Amino acid sequence: MSNDKPLILVVDDEPDIRELIKDILEDENYEVKIAADGQEAQQIFNEQQPDLILLDIWMPDIDGISLLKEFKQQNKNVTIVMMSGHGTIETAVEATRLGASDFIEKPLSTAKLLRGVEQALENRAKQASIQKELAQIPVGKSQQIKLLREQVERVAKHEMPILLVGEPGVGKHCFSHYLHSLGQFSGGKFIELSPESFPLDSLKITSLAKNNCLYIHDLALLSDEAQALLLHLLETHKLQQCQLICATQYSLQKAVDNGDFLESLLYQLNSITLVVPPLRDHIEDIPELVHHFVDVQTTRSGLPYRRFTVAAQNRLRNHEWSGNILELKNVIQRLLVLGNGEDIDVADVDLALASEAEAIENGDETINFELPLREAREQFERIYLLRKLQETDGNVGKAAKLAGMERTHLYRKLRSLGIDTKQI
Ligand SMILES: Nc1ncnc2c1ncn2[C@@H]1O[C@H](COP(=O)(O)OP(=O)(O)OP(=O)(O)O)[C@@H](O)[C@H]1O
């Protein structure tokens, strides 16, 4: 919203009604502008960019539906609620199709008006949550996440490579997207490379990287050739025209000690190292993360909105979250998809957590088609590889044969998916 007090524009050709609405809303601490016709409304719209417009369907110079269309064309994010005494279902449907967020029927009562306004502003806030998600601004008020956001804001101004360290699902991608959006290559693309997709071709990498953000996922698992190539590119300053972000869940120092990672590459990359904490270290963020994921998922996939009771939120705070924020996001999605009723209670949460654990144990987890491709692919790979390992009693060599993969490649894959073969 443009300032603390939401600005509401009321467009109605009847002076008494305009004034009445203005008085009611000003009493509730909203800032209000009024317009008697389309022309006046357009002028205020251009000059003041209201947060919300209450728009009458019938006006002398232009009808409300055409005005709605014009406003939406000029700014698709403006929130508009239609008002009419003669509202038919068809008009309401048409207004909604054109982007009106609600329809209030006249004669107005104070309660009806305020409910409509509050709801529209609440929806607007929900949209803001979606925008945040699209811009990938990491959510969280805990000291750890606040500090990390500030560190990212500070380092984004520099051109140095950034190393993000943290367990799977803690938000390394999320913070990288945020970093990218703040850096000097924010106009460029976010290109993700994994140990499997890393091209062993310096020209290809430099042209991919140029003016973009290059995110290397699972750095510790890069092959020896890929490490040597990356080191060469860094030493010859070929990756200066890009934002380089590397992520790892494993300690690079340990990898160096084991002879699996080049020490000089570590020194090229680790001068700015940021640690993304596991969710168990900032459980106070769980309620905000829950709201965020509920807002995003209900708005995006049209699932009915469901409220988590305080007890349910406490239950979520007490879970172990070995899969971190990614696991929390999936559990919330499961609860929204499978549940019914307005509230989500402790029993629902227990059931979702238990069925999650059971599905993984039985290897019969199903693919969730609501997930973005990357996460769905990981989910599939996990199910597939767990099945192969079960078929071979945990023998990685045999499982690799069944899967048609190199044994070392399968080891890497299992590690990146967080599958512990000792537990099969
Ligand atoms: N602080 C946060 N605020 C909002 N969403 C978040 C936050 N952290 C993570 N997420 C979301 O949770 C999901 C998992 O996070 P993300 O993919 O960033 O983790 P990751 O550490 O990169 O995982 P991996 O190592 O497995 O690739 C993503 O959809 C991400 O957008």
What features would you describe in this structure?
- InterPro entries: AAA_lid_NorR, CheY-like_superfamily, Homeodomain-like_sf, HTH_Fis, P-loop_NTPase, Sig_transdc_resp-reg_receiver, Sigma_54_int.
- GO terms for molecular function: ATP binding; sequence-specific DNA binding.
- Residues 7-121 form the Response regulatory domain.
- The protein is α/β, with parallel strands linked by helices and 424 residues long.
- Among the domains are: 7-113, 3-Layer(aba) Sandwich (Rossmann fold); 143-277, Rossmann fold (3-Layer(aba) Sandwich), CATH 3.40.50; 373-424, Homeodomain-like (Arc Repressor Mutant, subunit A, Orthogonal Bundle), CATH 1.10.10.60.
- It is 52% helix and 12% strand.
- β7 (190-193), α8 and β8 (213-216) form a beta-alpha-beta unit.
- α5 (110-135) crosses α12 (286-301), α13 (310-318) packs parallel to α15 (346-362) and α16 (373-391) packs across α17 (396-403).
- It binds adenosine-5'-triphosphate.
- The site of adenosine-5'-triphosphate has 17 residues, from α7 and α14.
Integer-rounded radius of gyration: 27 Å
Structural class: alpha/beta
How would you state the average pLDDT, rounded?
Answer: 87
Task: Please name the fourth-level CATH homologous superfamily of one domain.
Answer: P-loop containing nucleotide triphosphate hydrolases
Organism: Methylophaga aminisulfidivorans MP
Protein name: Two component, Sigma-54 specific, transcriptional regulator, Fis family
GO molecular function, one term: ATP binding
Keywords: ATP-binding, Nucleotide-binding, Phosphoprotein, Transcription, Transcription regulation, Two-component regulatory system
